[in-house]
Amino acid sequence: MSAKLFALLVSSLADTLFMVGVSSAIAFVFGLPLGVILLVTERGQILESPVVNRLLGSIVNATRSTPFIILMVLLIPVTRMIVGTSIGTVAAIVPLAIAATPFVGRVVEGALREVDDGVVEAALAMGASPWQVIAKVLLPEALPAIVIGLTLSVINLIGYSAMAGAIGGGGLGDLAIRYGYQRFRLDVMFLTVAVLIALVHLCQGLGDLVARKLRHDGRS
Amino acid sequence: MAISLQGITKIFGQGPRALKALDGIDLEVPEGTIFGIIGSSGAGKSTLVRCVNLLERPTSGTVCVGGVDFTSLSEGELREARKKVGMIFQSFNLLARRTVFGNVALPLELAGWKKEEIAPRVEELLDLVGLTVKRDVYPSQLSGGQKQRVGIARALANHPDVLLSDEATSALDPMTTQSILELLRNINEKLGLTILLITHEMNVIKEICHNVAVIEKGRIVEQGAVLDVFTDPREETTRDLLGEIIGVDLPPTFGGLDFSREPVAGGDLVIQLRFFGNVAAEPVMSDLVRRFDVDVNILTAHIDHIRNVPYGTLVVGLSGDEARRQAALEHLRALDLKMEVVGYVRQALCPAR
Ligand SMILES: Nc1ncnc2c1ncn2[C@@H]1O[C@H](COP(=O)(O)OP(=O)(O)O)[C@@H](O)[C@H]1O
Ligand SMILES: [Mg+2]
Fold first, then answer.
1. ipTM of the complex
2. Pick the CATH number of A3-219 from 3.10.150.10, 3.90.460.10, 3.40.50.720, 1.10.3720.10
3. Structure pTM?
4. DSSP H or E segment with residue B19
């Protein structure tokens, strides 16, 4: 492999890491409270509110059932408004973050749901406020499951980011399409795929490790 | 502090599928006592105990703890009030990701205690429940009994006025149950804490409760001092619950016997005696033999204790002259024990003279 190609691979990888990193961070920041709200506003929960729950739930479902590639196209005007352009790595972050936020929300909601009702009840019996239940019981108890869920979200974003390359987002997906597909460079194609696989493995391994360290329930 | 429930009704659901889980419960738990509520599964015990700290809001009725009407409090006031009501659970409900120390510290954190005040208080509680060595261990590494000790320490952390217990020993083996009950009794005696506990095991009531209420289908069918209810159960439900441990019923070997109201020639008179406290069985029996010249044959005997008071059931057959037997019965009636004539049997149960 030529030095030029290697440099290209490295810079594409950096682009991917940048896109995935920033969009993950944004998705976590918005997805985490979203997941909490989705759970606690549910029937029988500590801040029961059917209106809020149904409203957020349907927005989340609508976003999640739109295929990413279509979402990306639909969001072009929004992206232009925020970033000033719809092409490039920075522009790709907008649809990536918007697609990942509801996913993170559902993942967090699911993790919180796994927390034993009895533990929440014990906290309420101690006089905990809803906010205290969230901060001292729900989130800490669900942390290992949340980490697993966030890992899954990052891995999803790696896949989406490759797709974003197709509409000029840059990164490894872009490299694979421009060199591998359009110029028939199969070696480049395989190389990018290999790097993507390694990246996913690395994320999964790291996520599992952290979750295991956080667990104290004898399952580790 | 005393707990007073008045006219508590709880209806789950609405319309045709509504379920009346509690139906007009009145209950007074005197300050410093252990009050047991017993009933079979689905009777409404958990619902009742959850109504006390309003984890379940009663459909109607009032809950007073230490004279404060909980049902009239605002959300914020109720949260403050709950900080003085400890609660322990059948499934312990410990936080898996907090150590023993962290679990006991939780209510103190919620109540806004300072870090430097929390540590000594937690140490003190761990000492009380005998878990000092498990301070930094996670719940998954504890036995059931140890988990419940953490639960108890946690419930006591913020110096509660009353303690609620929802089947706290039901998930434990008999020996562990015994040690947890002892701990609860100690706490009641040392701290003067009022305890309201629910259980489906008569044994729990017998070991530590002063008073008992029997609940069935959301209603209290019988209540009173444990000794009274145990020695003179009025309701079928109570007898059923009691039967297994006290042996109110005659043992099955006597099931085939034909009892008659009238004396039968050569037959024995069978009576059941229940005594408790200072009346001991042995002198009573020897007294009968000596003073009335009747033969006494002990058919079954069951000695037990309620809290620390000895309690026994004795079924005896009397043989001898009918007039002397009647005199003996007269004598027994005058004593501080409960006597019930079962009847005359056709054959002699006592060895012939
Ligand atoms: N949240 C609830 N919603 C509907 N029904 C309930 C609820 N909680 C309890 N029940 C019903 O109320 C009755 C009493 O339940 P519970 O108090 O748990 O009984 P126990 O603790 O004596 O076994 C049962 O028939 C139960 O199914
Ligand atoms: Mg129950």
1. 0.88
2. 1.10.3720.10
3. 0.85
4. strand B19-29
